[in-house]
Amino acid sequence: MKHEVEVSIIKELMSQLDEGRNVDAGVMYRNPTTVYTCPDLAERERQAFFRDHPQLIALSGSLPEPGSYVTVDDFGVPVLATRDSEGRFRAFVNACRHRGARVAEGTGKHKRFVCPFHNWAYATDGTLKSVPLEDHFGKIDKSCHGLVELPAEERGGLLWVHPNKDGAIDLDSQLAGLDDEIASWNFGELVHQGETVIEGDLNWKLANDTFGETYHFQRLHRQTLGMINYGDALAYEEFGRNHRFVIASKRIDALRELPEEQWRLVDGTTPLYYLFPNIQLTWGDGVVSLIKMYPHPKEPGKSLTRILYYFRQDLIDLAANPDASTKVITAENTYDERVLDDGNDVTLSLSALTEVFDSTIEQEDYLMGKHQQAAAESGELEYLIFGRNEPALHHYHSHFRDALGMPSLEKMESVE
Predict the structure, then answer these.
(1) Are 125 and 208 contained in the same domain?
(2) Torsion of CA 65, 69, 74, 77, to 10 degrees
(3) 301 φ, ψ (degrees, to nearest 5)
(4) Residue 193 sits in a domain of what CATH number?
(5) Are 22 and 373 a contacting pair, CB within 8 Å?
(6) pLDDT at res. 318
């Protein structure tokens, strides 16, 4: 990101905080609750957004070296992603060409992927290398029976896969001008450090909605994220179907004492990218959380959220062996203001980051989502309201509807 953009965002947030105002979309909308409950709509979404749409599966740090692999099974097609012997990112249907059994599970590093059913073996580039007792089985053309390859692209430290072998990935169009900005943060240099999986009783769009406004921060999160971030202030910009969403951290106040040339976005804010249709990518100084939300394959009222954590290597080393001047934020002291505000250098342990997401997303945000889902399923609540201070919700739901050829959201008059 260009420094003048960082300064502009910080100034906008400072101005909102000083004036007691928030971002203002100038309009309110009604959102029908049926979008969270309709089985037919849910099936259309699964096809349009998850089977026929490129998927961001991970950051480059999930495949750190040749032979590394990850498996993904969240959007209807079992995927095996590898870094081949030449270092190239590849993706395949995770299915043996013999009888369709999976050739890999989980994550790790292999030179060959051996099907556990009959031991057909494949290289990291998907090539079929061997067939046991081929004289018994029958000769086949190995060059034509490698793993089914899927379109895959690595850009700016992000790994994209299209679940359809005949699909196309057009990141210039999809990212709509965000690709250079994303690349500037060097996400590809970060090291994968684990993940959290949340199975929730809420529609996948309700899960996404929890990341769509700051209105709730000082209410729902007053004892968690509200301790370290301001609510009711937002720097917001749209990029096609995507947007940048920047929250003011309470550390923004310290920037007022520094000259503008020393201002850094990560020192005073919590920035986040929403990438259509189901990604929330939030980051700090050397820390990234990739949040992926998926619909349940059969039940509109359920979803799965997978959160992948990435750290800069020096922070991993520092958390393991902190020096005398550095305090490591742990799960026990994540929201301890004495630790956050004493002026010392601070680094965030993996357990603390996990605790942040567990306590705020699963136990707070998704609990509200569960209540919303129950209300929607009752049939007695006709619509939800998206306020003027919730432009990200306007943007997301408008593009979701447009992509499926649905009518626009209904505007709602504001009573003066």
Answers:
(1) no
(2) 120
(3) -85, 10
(4) 3.90.380.10
(5) no
(6) 79
Residue 1, both tokens: 């990101």
Tokens of 375: 């209300």
- pLDDT for position 67: 98
Same domain flag for 198 and 98: no
- Residue 338 pLDDT: 46
Other CB atoms within 10 A of residue 81 CB? 25
Same domain for 40 and 123, yes or no, is no
Total structural domains within the chain: 2
First and final C-alpha spacing in the chain: 40
Strand 345-348 to strand 326-329: parallel, antiparallel, or no bridges (unpaired)? parallel
Cite the DSSP H helix spans in 313-413. Answer: 313-320, 337-340, 350-357, 366-378, 391-403
Query: What's at 84, amino acid-wise?
Result: D
Q: Are residues 39 and 66 in the same domain?
A: no
List the domain range (segments joined by +) for residue 79.
Answer: 55-155
The closest alpha carbon to 292, from 73, 58, 106, belongs to 58
CATH of the domain at 63: 2.102.10.10
In this structure, are residues 407 and 401 in contact, taking their beta carbons and an 8 Å threshold? yes
Question: So what's the pLDDT on residue 351?
Answer: 66
Is 16 inside a domain boundary?
Answer: yes
State whether residue 54 is helix, strand or coil: coil
pLDDT value of residue 317: 83
What does the CA dihedral 84, 195, 290, 254 come to, rounded to 10 degrees?
-130
Is 62 among the domain residues? yes
User: Does 325 share its domain with 365?
Assistant: yes
How far is 372 from 56, CA to CA, in rounded Å? 27
In a domain, 171, yes or no: no
- pLDDT given at position 413: 81
Do 250 and 331 lie in a common domain? yes
| Inside any domain, residue 323 | yes
- pTM: predicted TM-score of the whole model, two decimal places: 0.93
Is the domain of 73 the same as that of 46?
no
Can you give the pLDDT at residue 353? Answer: 65
Q: Consecutive 10-residue runs of the chain (416 residues): their mean pLDDT?
A: 97 98 96 98 98 98 98 97 97 98 97 98 98 96 97 98 97 96 96 93 97 94 88 97 97 96 96 98 93 97 96 84 62 50 50 69 95 98 97 97 97 78
Q: What is the pLDDT of residue 343?
A: 42
Report strand pairing: 68-72 vs 28-32.
Answer: unpaired
Q: How far apart are CA 270 and CA 225, in angstroms?
A: 11
What is the C-alpha separation between 124 and 145, in angstroms, rounded? 14
